[in-house]
Amino acid sequence: DRFTARVGTKVYGSITVFLNYYFNVSKMFVVNRNLFTPKPNVDSVVLSLETKKDQYDVLDEDLLFKLIRDSFRFKRKNLRNNLKGYDLEKIESILNLWGYDLTVRAEQLDVEIFVEIANAI
After folding, report:
1. Which run of H or of E encompasses 21?
2. 93: Cβ–Cβ under 8 A, 6 or more apart, which residues?
3. What CA–CA distance (Å, rounded) separates 34 from 57?
4. Where are the beta strands (DSSP E) in the chain?
5. Predicted confidence band of residue 75 (pLDDT cuts 50, 70, 90)
6. CB atoms within 10 A of CB 108
7. What is the per-residue pLDDT for 77?
8. N or C end of the chain: smaller count of CB under 10 Å?
């Protein structure tokens, strides 16, 4: 569920953003736990990870990944609190273009917004 989560849901996290950076992720089908020996406690899911044809134009991929990790560090905090060591004015200017401000939480932002913020920094 975390791999295929949508923006704004409880299970949307940094792993979702990282995967969406590289792949189009979709859930294919469920494999019932009764098909395995020994039987696990959960059902399994087969995922499709299709490499994105158009990669994002990122100036510094290491900075982008650090930004994403830092944004999700404390899940219930907003970006102003999670990104105190960054240039908040630049971050806020990008967020304003998308209709957000620094009180937004990381789980409300799509991978494109993180890319734009990283490029601005």
Report:
1. helix 14-22
2. 120
3. 45
4. 23-31, 44-51
5. confident
6. 15
7. 92
8. N
